[in-house]
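Q: What structure does this chain adopt?
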Amino acid sequence: MVEIKTETNLLLMREAGRVVAQALQAVRDKAAPGVTLAELDGVAREVLAAAGAGSPFLGYRPDWAPVPFPAVLCLSVNDAIVHGVPDGTRLADGDLVSADCGAVLDGWVGDAAVSFTVGRARPEDTRLIETAEEALAAGIAAAVVGNRIGDIAHAVGRVCRRAGYGIADGFGGHGVGRTMHEGPDVPNEGRPGRGMPLRPGMAIAIEPMLLAGGRDHHYTAADGWTIRTLDGSRAAHAEHTIAITPDGPRVLTAL
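A:
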């Protein structure tokens, strides 16, 4: 089911999205060689608490998960694509980190992700991250009334494939609203002109996940959550929650 949001609903989602953006910025500012993933999760917890927001990640347990998710951040490092669990692992110079965060405020959810390098960046990692951001921007630009979900998927996938990157098979964006995962699904590859029409008041998360090795395959790590590239290549993840409006796409998870 796809819920059409009112302007009031979208304004409330914007406030939740602002908290997400603040948390991700604080995490990025704190990230440095020697800092643990658990410490970064603590930074995000502090931002959420200060805003009076809850976390849609903490305690989340879909059918396939062996245990509830134990943190407010997904922190995926190097060959981890998504769903990385924060633990005592210390960041090293040159690590590529994808941070995914959500917030619940006044009953509405925001969800976003950003990738960045700790310390000195490898040129190939910089290109990978920049391409993920370019794919996200292309998907957002396609999110206009009159287009369809397939137009977003095609825009994202075209950027990824032209750059020679793989796309995490079976993973993509989704509707957002009163819960973190609602309809519709928003794939990262597809055919233009296909799928659900985009209507004013829809709110969706667009989230490209790029695999540097050029292949689409991945596996689930022993923790039951972390998704890693099968070939060990690095991955990058970029995400915004946006609203479909008569005036064009509106990003709800920017600062």
